[in-house]
Amino acid sequence: MELKGIHHVSAITANALDNYHFYTKVLGMRLVKKTVNQDDTSMYHLFYADEIGRPGTDLTFFEINRAGTTYRGNNSISLTSLRVQDDEALQYWVDRFDSHSVKHNGIEEQFGRKVIYFEDKERQRLALISDETNEGVESGIPWKQSVVPQKYGITGLGPVRITVPNLLVTEHILVDVLKFRQMGSYLVDNHHEVFVFSTGKGGTGAEIHVEIDIDAEKERPGKGSVHHLALRVTDRTELEQWREIISAERLPNSGIVDRYYFQSLYFRERNGILIELATDGPGFATDESIEHLGESLALPPFLENQREDIERNLVPLYTKKD
């Protein structure tokens, strides 16, 4: 039994409408699900992904209207990367970022791959990573109706970087418990070492990068921070087996939670990183057709009887014709 790669990353925004504009109109991702946080239905939960929301392509956001500034630091998920098909696509993105006044560092190299580090308006830490030389987990397929030409479009999630003060406790969870493989390391900022761990078929869609920073204070999250990362599990049967493994490690966990579009298990590793294990299915077409994903407020059946109250408390997010 082996985890298949990155499933999704969930972050925080203070403004759903601005967030929607950036990720669909600038980055060209598709809004595949407009729903609410199932644990707090007063806030949106927006899912951006490839053409149909394949597992491994979802970048999601919880809207917390009063979210303050993120004070960056340790014990955090510190970088989310997004895949593109080749180096040529990165040059397209340099030009696009410049035309949209997106802060970026130009094309650099990371672990033998070309990348562009950039930020959204809330200083969410992001990177585009080229799959020019990549082998491993298959990418998604960009949406044909995107504002970005399909050959340059974002194809899914790449490596997720976490920053911690102590490698050993995180390495134990990744290698001994979750069965990742250590693949090597590289430097960032000329002195912080980042260790690369891989699972499943490997490659950009199946890596966690662990940056070691022994000096930084613990991050204080807010808008522009990442809440958790999720890893892919085939189905409910495997998820139940992972629950036994996590419990045997004496890691406090949520037990299995039905998120309707997938089933999940949440736990924190001992450096405080919140990790979710999530099944590949049933997927986002469960309650909407593929042609109309994300156009209406979708609620799982157990929230449907609260629809009127939920919609009354949400600021309208117009997405169909804007």
From TrEMBL:
PROSITE patterns: VOC. The keyword Ligase does not apply. It holds the Pfam family Glyoxalase. Residues 5-131, 156-280 form the VOC domain. InterPro entries: Extradiol_RC_dioxygenase, Glyas_Bleomycin-R_OHBP_Dase, Glyas_Fos-R_dOase_dom, VOC_core. Keywords: Dioxygenase, Oxidoreductase. GO terms for molecular function: dioxygenase activity. The keyword rRNA-binding does not apply. It comes from the Bacteria. PANTHER family: RING-CLEAVING DIOXYGENASE MHQA-RELATED (PTHR36110:SF4), RING-CLEAVING DIOXYGENASE MHQE-RELATED (PTHR36110). This is Ring-cleaving dioxygenase. It comes from Gracilibacillus marinus. The lineage of its organism: Bacteria, Bacillati, Bacillota, Bacilli, Bacillales.
